[in-house]
Amino acid sequence: MITESPLFHSKILLFGEYSIILHSMGLALPYPLFEGRLLIKHITDSSRRIQQSNNELRAVAQYIKYKLKNNELDCDFDVKSMEFDVAQGLFFQSNIPQGFGVGSSGALTASLYERYVYQKDILPSHLRKGNPPTNEEVLQLKKVLGQLESHFHGSSSGIDPLICYLNTPILMKSKTEMELPQLPKTTGANGGIFLLNTGRPRKTEPLVNLFLEKCKQTAFYDLCKNELMVYSDNCIRAFLASNHGELFDNVKVLSQFQYTHFEQMIPPLFREIWRNGLETDHYYLKLCGAGGGGFILGFTKDINVLLKDLDGYQLRVAYKL
Predict the structure, then answer these.
(1) In the prediction, which pLDDT does 182 show?
(2) Strands 170-174 and 283-287
């Protein structure tokens, strides 16, 4: 017999990678192509993949138990029930690629919160009725989810599991102000936002540590504050306002900035097509999350031209403009 929990989707951080660390705005969307859910299946029937997931969840339970013991978890997480379920064969069934910047650990964290935390102030979008959650409620949920997800990354802002759990776009206007915006309607034009698959996973923590180390250099820090943050914030404003001309202008300068100053975050095999997009203006590439592999985000005014330019590469349109 199999018992299951609700599905939780992956996410895309559309704008704000790295700059959000310096308190720029950030915009993230749920991405329903990938999803995952908790299942319980008798352990003797497990495949190697199920066994690996079960072992990982056992480690998560130990971590949460430690956090509870030290009063470092601001929720009533039922770790005893989780330990019981792990012994029965609990695993996370997911098609979300790990290490690709689309929230595999965020969806798992959202699933654990849904299943084992009973006193919830906010419900997912498909269950909510009446008034939207307050800014304070969203911030508190983000904090708790970050405490849970820290098992996977050493530390976590809580943004990824927040988007996965609420299943709604999140606009991070500042460190203490969140908004649940309405996305602009597609215009029927040929433009779009796409994912480009590098075919290689990456780990977030070393790349973020590299960025933080570079920020200790005054010149690099000032560049990020005075240029990267400005370009990213302008992209968000233009996107939400459906101002596509301004959006593409700012995405281009953001792409150029990352190509010039974030060389170590761009896989070497993709630097040529990154540069080609800037030179032809057929498309612009930017990091998807930490970079270094996984997916790369792209923006194009004409999907048909894009498909010809990047014939032979794995790409998928995620949002039409």
Answers:
(1) 87
(2) unpaired
Claim to verify: residue 82 and residue 160 sit in the same structural domain: yes
The total number of structural domains in the chain stands at 2
Query: What is the residue type of 86?
Result: V
Per-residue pLDDT at 241: 95
Cβ pair 18, 211 in contact under 8 A: yes
Residues 196 and 87 both lie in one domain:
no
Residues 174 and 70 reside in one and the same domain: yes
* pLDDT for the residue numbered 1: 41
Amino acid at 4: E
Residues of the chain predicted below pLDDT 50: 1-2
- The CATH number linked to 128 is 3.30.230.10
Same domain, 175 and 198: no
Collapse the DSSP code of 26 into the 3-class scheme (helix H, G, I; strand E, B; otherwise coil) and give the result. Answer: strand
Same domain, 175 and 199: no
pLDDT confidence of residue 125: 62
Tell me how far apart the alpha carbons of residues 268 and 99 are, in angstroms, rounded to a whole number.
18
CB atoms closer than 10 angstroms to residue 5:
19
Give the CATH number for residue 214.
Answer: 3.30.70.890
Q: Are residues 146 and 267 in the same domain?
A: no
Asked whether the CA dihedral 111, 115, 119, 125 is positive or negative, the reply is positive
Closest CA to 183 of 296, 320, 32: 320
CA pair distance 305, 18, nearest whole angstrom: 30
User: By the 8 A CB rule, do 314 and 208 touch?
Assistant: no
